[in-house]
Write a structure and sequence with these properties.
Layout (H helix, E strand, L loop, with lengths): L2 E6 L2 E8 L3 E6 L5 E7 L2 E2 L27 E6 L8 H4 L4 E6 L2 E9 L4 E9 L6 E9 L5 E12 L3 E5 L11 E4 L5 E2 L7 E4 L2 E4 L7 E4 L5 E5 L4 E6 L16 E6 L3 E6 L4 E3 L4 E12 L11 H13 L1
Antiparallel strand pairs: 1-2, 2-3, 3-4, 4-5, 6-11, 7-8, 8-9, 9-10, 10-23, 11-21, 11-22, 12-16, 12-18, 13-14, 13-17, 15-16, 17-20, 18-19, 19-23, 20-21
């Protein structure tokens, strides 16, 4: 139970990192994704079996905007970055680099001038997974992109995000995208509230995309299968965040099917040859889903997340 090559979700050449309780499966075939992050066989990531084995062909349109599923990752800002399907959908190269570690490397995207590397290390005795994306400027010009994770958690869960109101630029400490191209800075939604210093999204909101400018640097997503998925990531109020609303985190609730969990990094101004990295840390912890989804014990979930992050 360390590192091995396996067949998974219709793909040969996947890498599995495993300890006694947790397995992480990496798929380089379609955008360099995490296909599995599972606690005792229960995957915290949403996979669509209809996508099993799907391979992108250059020039092909994505068959559905939910492609590719799983633990996706990208760069932004999403509204102004040129299309870069070779990074988002293309074939990456995978290698095992240690007993619980692997690396995936993209091809070069001429459109955005960068090459991406993702490195993953699973702890030998816990669910702790480090995920580092490095963006290298391989062009002859300055690049100004940012890290953007796009992991699909399993749908209809409860998201708990600690807030930093003293640093927020937003009246409600979050924005809601929609209807249309609007970004609503005064949203009201019965599925969203602030409790115990956290933004709690306990049901599917009217419009799926939310954005926050919190600098707490972590959040928890409680899934209906009884797993608490915790993410920690750097968030620096002294950096420029170049998304449209200056976001450090985005959540995207698509119907009750998936919740996209999206830490966002600051703008990285890279000269030719320079590189920048951002590391997310992931954890899983068993946590019962409440009988009534509007009655979750936020303080208890926060305490569990903090204990889990402390190891």
């Amino acid at each position: 139970m360390t590192s091995e090559w396996i067949h998974y979700a219709g793909y040969d050449g996947c890498v599995a990192l495993a300890n006694a309780d947790v397995r992480v499966t990496l798929g380089p075939q379609c955008g360099g994704r995490v296909l599995e992050y599972a606690w005792r066989g229960e995957n915290a990531l949403w996979l669509d079996p209809q996508q099993d084995g799907w391979i992108y062909q250059p020039g092909q349109r994505e068959p559905h905007f939910l492609y590719p599923c799983g633990g996706r990752c990208d760069i932004g800002p999403e509204m102004i970055i040129p299309p870069h399907p070779e990074l988002w959908l293309g074939q990456w190269q995978a290698e095992i680099v240690g007993p619980y570690s692997a690396r995936m490397t993209s091809t070069v995207s001429e459109a955005v001038g960068v090459q991406l590397t993702r490195e993953y290390t699973l702890a030998a005795d816990s669910s702790h997974l480090t995920c580092t994306q490095t963006m290298r400027n391989v062009s002859d010009r300055i690049t100004r992109w940012c890290y953007w994770c796009r992991s699909f958690g399993r749908g209809h869960g409860i998201c708990i995000v600690p807030l930093t109101p003293e640093l927020s630029r937003l009246p409600k400490q979050y924005v809601m995208y929609g209807p249309g191209a609007a970004i609503n800075v005064q949203p009201e939604d019965p599925a969203i509230r602030v409790r115990d210093g956290c933004l709690e999204v306990f049901d599917t909101p009217a419009y799926p995309k939310l954005g926050l400018d919190t600098y707490a640097g972590w959040f928890g997503y409680l899934e209906t299968n009884g797993l608490l998925f915790v993410k920690r990531y750097p968030a620096d109020p002294n950096r420029v965040y170049n998304e449209a609303a200056g976001l450090t985190l985005s959540l995207w609730y698509f119907r009750d099917l998936v919740c996209e969990l999206e830490p966002i990094g600051p703008m990285e101004v890279l000269q030719p040859g320079q590189a920048a990295s951002l590391t997310e840390e992931w954890w899983l912890a068993p946590c019962p889903f409440p009988a009534q989804r509007d009655a979750a014990d936020v303080a208890q979930i926060v305490a569990l997340a903090q204990r889990t992050m402390q190891g």
